[in-house]
What does this fold into?
Amino acid sequence: MDKVKVIGVIVIIAGVITAGFVMGDFLPAIGDINSAPNGYLSVYYITNALHDTEAPNMVTAVLADYRGFDTLFETCVMFLAGVTTLMVLSSKRKVVKGKRNEHDLNGVSFGGTVLDTGFRIIIPVIVIYAFYVLSHGEISLGGGFQAGALLAIAYMIDRLIPSFQNSLGNFTEEAAAIIAGLGVFIYAFTGVLPMFNGGYFLEYDHLPFAFMTEEIVMLHSVGIFMIEAGVTVCVMGTIINILEVVLERTEFDD
Amino acid sequence: MINHLPVLIIIVPLMGAILCPLISYYSPEWGKKTVIGALFASFVMSVMQLVNVAERGEPVHYWMGGWNPPYGIEFVIDGVNAVMIAMVAAIGAMTALFSSPFEEANPKHRFRSAGYYSILCFLAIGLLGMSSTGDAFNLYVFMEIVSLAGYGLIAIGEEKAPVAAFRYLLTGTIGACMYLMGVGFLYSATGTLNMADMAVRLQDVENMTVIIIAMACLVVGLGVKMALFPLHGWQPAAHSYAHHAADPMIAGIMIKIPAYAMFRFFFCIFDESLPMMGAVHKIVGVMAVCGILFGSLKALRYHKYNKILAYSSIGQVGYIALGFAIGNFYGIAGAVLHIVSHAFMKTGLFYTSAALKYKYHIEYTDDLGQVYRKMPVTSLTLVTLALSMVGLPPFAGFFSKWYLALGAIQNGQYFYVAVLVASSLLGAIYFFRIFEKLFMGEETEMEDRYPAAEHGGKELPLRIMIPLLMAAAMIIALGLGNSLVVDFIEKTVLEVFLA
It folds into this structure.
């Protein structure tokens, strides 16, 4: 009976894939200038993005400015994922904290002496690179999500290699969740600020920092940087949160 | 401030949800109050918005970031979704209040109540966003928030809850993917994500294959999310084992808003003249009829209170889909009225279920014997809402079925009328069985975890009793004022949905 089911599922999937290939021409070809998506909104974004948002990177212009409201809630998804993981996994706590013996840890290595030393050098570089990615996101590739992941990796290396003895400090998972929440708060607050200044939600033209810049359009750079910073903090907090929740369930000293 | 209302309704609870962990770090009690306060503020604003929309007589548009619609995201609030938003905000605020005695039970885990309230608030935010937005992709983002919050709230429930949540996670992800694929296909054909713009540009599309595939994806994707038969597999387990206090909201509105989204797509975006539209209506009609009969028959089999309610939900979602299949003014008005009235009915019934669990830990209807003497308020609510579910006047459940039947008769679809009557009779059987246990069953000995004598003669904390009575009052008010609701949505339904 089970075999029949498995074969049935395979036949259905194969059928759908074949049908997809046979009827494949219902989707526009990649790069077709006459297709609907390439002839409508994209044209507007390509011609106006730089002028409207002062962001040389068009992807950033769409992501953080034209559709910044979507990105706010994508950031919320990160935060929510962290909090949910915390709630689901930490409901049954197994390992008592503080059972580790300091004396033993110095002898334990993560990837051998050479790699451990290498990691020691690499952490500051990762942190610097994270700030570069954050501030450069608007101009070329990069942005808040990647910068947050890099910062979290720096923390993660420090946390996982026993001989480092958590020199960057040790977050509890609650603290990490709170930090992630603050990241979303920075984003949402950037959106709320223009509303006090007579604009719509997330309308960077109305940010109250006009005295700092020469042109109103430059405010878009300020706004995009602020929300990217918020995303960075949120992503970093969430990754640390999930890492800590997982580490909580087992004693990691091997 | 009045022109910022559409976004403030979402941003105020969002601030509450993200600051709740920080505030709870210092005082869990205040973290809780932040979320409850934010949701109540959102409710007040949604009522103001309802009045504003009624006064203006035309939809309210809000442009995010000041970008004009096809380029940016916009919120569009018209007669129908103003009602939806007020409903979601009301149930969100009531459920947040209702949860507070349940979350006091775990004082050990400091983050427990903070996380719970944060996730609950996000569930409300996602549903509010899904009902407000005028952008197809933005709706997906909010759907994602609703799903994630739903997985979390189900997983922290009873013993069997993690498995139920995992099942829902797998099925729900497929549903969300199908929706996203549907939107992707529509984007490939029209080049826009704004719903109103999409409706205009769809008229010039020549390639019909892609539209038909998109329709199929949307029916399946939203069908999974609204637990429409035969895509309902995740629903009974998820609704019976979820966190007791969050269950009312999950069962009450999490499956209604995707139904509303389906109406938006098939009546506002797709034109009547498109090929296959008749077939889509027929297919959804068949699914609805099967769902109504299946849900009602299956509910007869169970003695577990939550399971009965969950299977009855499958039937009730069928009614909403039936209104979709009927597709004329009375059908749509009946479906919208049923979305609202069933949201309050099912939320209220799950409140009673949670209240029974809070006081006596009753799970099975067999233990209900003579409980009405000990819990008069809960029993009164249960009876009111159950009679409304069965469809007795003057409760709201009768009038939504009445409009559906009117619509079916107007279209000459007498089979649908027969299904409506049959399912009401089945509903009467399973709810009267509960009444029989409640009023005539033998009393069982149970441990009372909230003795009335120690709490000034109250059967339950006020924070539980107020939402219970509110739900019952809403059902009576909606029943008596059903013509007001229908008048309110009439203009929008005629101009936007059936234009």
Notes: The mean pLDDT of chain A is 82. The radius of gyration of chain A is 24 Å. Chain A touches chain B through 55 residues (CB under 8 Å). The first helix of chain A runs from residue 2 to 22.
